[in-house]
UniProtKB/TrEMBL annotation, chain A:
Species this protein is from: Streptosporangium carneum
Gene Ontology cellular component terms for the protein in this record: plasma membrane
Chain ranges of the ABC transmembrane type-1 domain: 80-269
UniProt keyword terms in alphabetical order: ATP-binding, Cell membrane, Membrane, Nucleotide-binding, Transmembrane, Transmembrane helix, Transport
Stated name of the protein: Dipeptide/oligopeptide/nickel ABC transporter ATP-binding protein
Residue span(s) of domain ABC transporter: 317-562
InterPro entries reported for this sequence: AAA+_ATPase, ABC_Ni/Peptide_Import, ABC_transporter-like_ATP-bd, MetI-like, MetI-like_sf, Oligopep_ABC_C, OppC_N, P-loop_NTPase
Automatic annotation (TrEMBL), chain B:
Subunit-level organization: The complex is composed of two ATP-binding proteins (GsiA), two transmembrane proteins (GsiC and GsiD) and a solute-binding protein (GsiB).
Primary residence: membrane
Organism annotation: Streptosporangium carneum
Protein name per its UniProtKB record: Glutathione import ATP-binding protein GsiA
Signal peptide: none
Amino acid sequence: MTTTKTRPALARRLLRRPSAVIAVAWLVTLTAASLGAPLIAAHGPLDQDLTQVLALPSAAHPLGTDSLGRDLLSRLLYGGQPALLAVAEALAVHLVVGAGLGLVAGYLGGWVDHLTTRIGDLLFALPAIVIVLVVLSVFPGNLHAAMVTFGVLGSPSMIRVLRSRTLGIRQEMYVAAARVSGLSDAQILRRHVLPRLTSTVIVQAALFSGVAVIIQAGLGFLGLGAQPPAPSWGGLVADASQVIDRDPWMLVPAGVPLVLTVIALMALGDAIRDTAVENWSVSKLAASGPVAPPPVAEEMAEETAGTSRAPDPDALLSVRDLTVEIGGVPVVQGVSFDVMPGETLGVVGESGCGKSVTALGVLGLVPGGGRVVRGRVVFDGVDLVGSPEGLARVRGSGIAYVSQDPMVGLDPTFTVMAQLAEAVRRHLGTTREQARERVLELLAMVGVPDPPSVARRHPHQLSGGLAQRVLIALALAGRPRLLIADEPTTALDVSVQKEILTLLHTLQRRTGIAVLIVTHDWGVVATLCHRSLVMYAGQVVEQADVEPMFVRPLHPYTAGLLAANPHQAVSGHPLVTIPGAVPPPRDWPVGCRFAARCPHAADDCRAAPVALVQPEQARLTRCLHFEELVDEGVRR
Amino acid sequence: MTARPLLEVDGLTVEYGQGRAPSLRAVDGVSFDVRPGETVGLVGESGSGKSTIARAVLGLTPVHSGEIRFDGADITRANRGLRRTLSARLQMVFQDPYSSLNPARTIGQTLAEPLLVHHRLRPAQVDARVAAMLERVGLPAQAAERYPAQFSGGQRQRVAIARALMTSAELVVCDEPVSALDLSIQAQTLNLLSELQRELSLSYLFIAHDLPVVRYLSHRVVVLYHGAVMETGPVELVYERPAHPYTRALLAAVPDPDPRVRSGRHDAPVAAAQAAPRSSAVGCPFAPRCAHAVELCRTERPPLLPLRGDGVAGGAAVACHRAEELISTGNDVASGTVAAGLPKDIQMEET
């Protein structure tokens, strides 16, 4: 992360890339050499030396000579000038017409867009090379006219790409915000739209200039550009092709500069693009920073009390010392808990605390290429860690999963019936007919009104609440004994949320299924859960039955989170807050991870990792000073 | 408070149309006002038209009919020039702090934008102003050099608040400003908003679906359903004695964070309340979901009238034919049955 006052200029940052250095070096050398041709070349481009016809490179002729004994280096350099100029002309026209019209069409929309798009389509339909040849027949030998025409004819691709990108950017909220700030259209285009288009424009321009190099060479090859005997790159290739049987070497000085120039343009385009966006692109930021894992506190091996080291044989799910790493960085460390049959356990915390990763870790489905590196997940007596067969057996039929966004959880291309029937047949191995019946049963069970009609629909025809019910029905298809629900109500409206909570509660009463629910909403915990564990920065910081936890939290983080709930707030009084924010996994401290935000933190908190302790029956807290909290609670 | 309203919205109707398809009425005859220094909360579920109202006030969406006045002047169809002038006083904080800041612009560049429009300041003055505002919202001044990707959601929302306050804003429209934030960050942001309101005597039009959040910050509240006002009044009155069955259902649906209450833990009917058909032109929009609906509710749209019980100025107003008789039945009886009640006469909408 660069926080320095002066960021180095684009050019200097660009030259930190080796590919850019090589590309720039080639292009600069070529340009300088072409401009300085009279100084560099020992011979004039038209000087003939008939004693040295089709010579190989020598001291007098570094690149050899052609069929009339003319120096190839000299012809190459003198020919470079019109070639580079031609490419520059075409590119300039291409950028002005293509980028200008693309931006305007995308941003203004309406009839401007319509007209521009139609004109673009028309240009697309024209065979560019034929038109260029026509132009050349009207203006014989005028390469400028030809390249300007080519720039215009090549612009529709740029118009198209920029238009669609601009259409998207126009809908972005920061454009609305800029409009609210009173910025004019021109200001919005320059400040908000153009910076987002930089990379697209550069890539398009690099591609186009590569093509322009080839086209101008092609025109030279056909003898339509500079008229012989004037030197041109295309003409060199043409000359070489005529003597290819006698002097194959000549193709090298004629062709290689062309190829190198095209490659250099592409490489430079890529490098400029990467450099221009490296400051703000998220992936770049994520990749920077320390790659090595941060100092990881040695997890307390003694594990004083409470959750014993061995999995609980009575529990349905017994997780011990679960540690999950994503990209080599631990994001969940030493998490242990049990879920009893028929119990609802809530996992509470803010984003970035590892709640969801813990839930997915149980199923062996850690996102982002993460993996469970340590610990045991014992479900119904079988350890699932490192046992793909065990996981495959358990997923769906032992443990089911309900995700936060119901629309993401359902496949948009299949009907509800198809998706549910597939799950039913997979898990229960029934016939088609039986599966259909079971699907309707399941839909009725989750309170879907008129199951046959809902079963025929596709997911996009369902409301959010209905989709979440279908997802729950899908989860229940394999008659699981544990349901893992990751923020199942967060994306829903409040009245629908209540319906889903009631449904989960009712299902649990009727089927005896155990539920592990991940949530940040204390209301959900209070409504649904028997016990709850609070996670902070990848660790369990408190675990208790729900009522005692709400009434008398024993960890300052739990207390802070409970107090921060606006539900308890009194208008006019500031809300109780926890200062600061959850540290990212790379910045976890050695000592108590909450110390930086904790009103009770002392030196001993920061010194060493804090162990979970059992202050009383069925309660755990990872706090050295929980007594202070208890005293405080009594005073309140 | 009898001061002249800063913002008056009068019979606002917004329709979205797509080509020849029948237009969708997102906001239907909504009226309310915001007085200086006051926070008015707009609550309702998704599709209730809250955000559309905000966009209409800011001129980001065309108005079908009705009038919006700011400080007495009609701004319903204000042109770009008037909007530019207006933007110094009327500002907005958007819902999603991730997409409301341009990732390609530094925080400093973003914050300087409102100043470009309204003040001719030298670069040094702009920098000083940006630094001062960053500090005011609790961010280090060096944040100006960085890009949004380097900040957390809570920090970005602070930046968005700072942007709204760069010029001397009087009314800030806050569209779900804390719904994307974590609990502890949400509380920090709400505190910041109320501190700033006191310091700068700001008015807020505060839009949220989270009822406790609206209650905490608002003085008055407007309850919306399907684009129409169901109930409006002082926040304490509406929350403590909701008169409209929809308000009651909404309030009853909020899960109580007290395990001793366990409000949702009854074996209630598991049927889903159907997404009601888009309200008919006649009748109460909530009638299809209302447990108290009678024939009158389906044939005649109830007007928004002050409750007779407390007919004093500044009391609550309700759009319900049966408000008077329902309020006497007490809130507890009504609340439970509404949210999950599935009216028998509603057929599934086939799409």
